[in-house]
Amino acid sequence: MGMIMGDGMYNFLKVLYRAVTTALVKRRVAEQEAHIDVRLRAVRGRRERDAATAAAHKQVQDDRRRTEVFLEDQVPLGVAYGGYVAIAAVCVVTLPRIFPGFKWYYVVVVCTCMPVFAFCNAYCCGLTDWNIACTYGALANFVVGAWTDAAHGGVLAGLAAHGMVGSVVFTASELIRDFKTGYLTLASRRAVFVSQAIGTAMGCVISPCVFWLFYQAFDVGTPGTDYPAPFARIYRSLAILGADGFGSSLPKHCLTLCYAFFSAAFLISFVKDVAGKSTVARFIPIPTAMAIPLYFGSYLGIDMCLGSFIIYVWERVDRAKAEAFGPAVASGLMCGAGMWTLPESVLSLANVKPPICMTFLSRKTYESLHAVLSP
User: Fold this and answer.
1) What sign for the dihedral angle of Cα 117, 122, 128, 129?
2) Over the Cα atoms of the chain, what is R_g?
3) 12, 119 Cβ separation under 8 angstroms
4) How far is residue 178 from each of residues 55, 196, 250, measured CA to CA in Å?
5) Where along the chain do its domains lie?
6) Cβ(236)–Cβ(159) under 8 Å?
7) Distance between CA atoms of 94 and 225, rounded to whole angstroms?
8) For 202-239, what is each residue's pLDDT tens digit?
9) What is the pLDDT of residues 245-289, one digit of tens each?
10) How many C-beta atoms surround the C-beta of residue 226 within 10 A?
11) Is 130 helix (H, G, I), strand (E, B) or coil?
């Protein structure tokens, strides 16, 4: 988590710095052009148009058309900022009334941090195609629960913060995915945004109704039933640990490791940007890509390493075919793995057991097991 946050924070600050500097440069140029002669301004405008035309001709026709369509209907910045402030104000007023332990200043702090979390998660999702919004929700759960403490409703406040951060971060990441799809399919960006907003508004009404139906019809949350809701128990336990405080609930040196890897990821990202397109930059890893196997387990790292090795060998043999058919092969593998879940679920429901099982044990474990099983 520290590596993902460090890499995401660095890229967030980098994008913010570039946006601010670009805005300042444009403003300075506009002020200078106000004092330039009309003829010189016309000459400069002609040169800029010629340069833009030359750059456009270098692009592929499809990419140029996609860019034009995607940039036509932009969402005004005033609408974006004003909408976020308005929704945050509604949350500040309503959430403390629903969850008494979730004070209004907690909501303000969470709303202030959510854009950073959303950017970091969108960056991670775009880089690795893994949406880890639940991790940011768990982080908010733990921090707000520890901030409130158990005596003042820290468990409920942590769970409320978890739901708030998780839903917002997940929706923001999915919106970026929809924008990508809209770019590829020549869809209007404004239409994509409006569609996402309508779907989110419908979910705010439909999801509680569906949950209420399940809650009334089934025994939800009880172990051993059809709907045990295992993640609910996990998040509640996490909120209880957070409400007990950082010192007593976290393992030893946990925060120290988190701070260290956060700083290391920030530094690695900075060094990678400084290296630019040099040969050294190819060997500097991306912290987020390193963190994903640590988060999901070693099996993912082995799979990604094997896939990278295959595409590396393929590029060495025939780069043109590797670039042309590599995405198709990857899509086929992902579709095949996804389609296998259906027969796997059917076999699981039918209680079909595999005819043979295989496991790997260390020598010490094997000797202990052999001593127990041998007559």
Assistant:
1) positive
2) 26
3) yes
4) 27, 8, 37
5) 77-250, 316-375
6) yes
7) 34
8) 988 898 888 888 888 778 877 777 777 777 887 888 78
9) 765 666 777 778 888 988 998 898 888 888 877 778 778 888 887
10) 9
11) coil
